[in-house]
Amino acid sequence: MEKVGAVRCQRIGCDAFFTEEDNADGSCRYHDSGPIFHDGMKEWSCCKQRSHDFSLFLAIPGCKTGKHTTEKPVLNRQSPSPPKPIAPVSLTKKNNDTCSRCRQGFFCSDHGSQTKPSKPLLLPNSKDDSEKDKPAPVKKKIDLNEIQTCRNKGCGKTFKEKDNHETACEYHPGPPVFHDRIRGWKCCDMHVKEFDEFMNIPPCTKGWHNADPS
């Protein structure tokens, strides 16, 4: 619940509500440099933390601490670094045996792309042995008084499950759109040029808080 007279912190990565009485040094965690978007990867230029998923990217905790502020920060914009040249597979075959990404069949910028092993063809009525032995998923036990953080896009507020209801959360149900230096949300057709303006686009939908990222 927001405190009476509280205002929202404008630092990137914080977005918490505060009052001058509880604004101690170190109470704010934030990013002091803007993000970099390159080839589907989102990265904070100040701490090099990155993620392909936009929700997980916004959930990366700030790398700096200080006091909350109502002044919008001036971001230090950096150009994305040029991609590393991909070495030919034939020249790096020796390293593929020790690289964890190569062994699992993922793309590796150091050793080139790997061919994923093909799965055996299953008949319509046959089941994979791994599926037969797979245990049933365990339902997560929820403490109604546990403080959780909502992972809905555009929300990020803390909540207790006992206070959650169908209009408690304000969020964006659609994916973010980044195209030709334009940033926005597909669900409400809002588009801006600056990242801090994008972060301040008001949510367009109400619903339940959700602590599990979608």
UniProtKB/TrEMBL annotation:
GO cellular component: a single term: nucleus
Region (Disordered): 69-91, 111-139
Keyword tags: Metal-binding, Repeat, Zinc
One GO molecular-function entry: Hsp90 protein binding
One protein family per Pfam: CHORD
Occurrences of domain CHORD (ranges): 9-68, 150-209
Name listed for the protein in its UniProt record: Cysteine and histidine-rich domain-containing protein RAR1-like
Native source organism of the sequence: Dioscorea cayennensis subsp. rotundata (White Guinea yam)
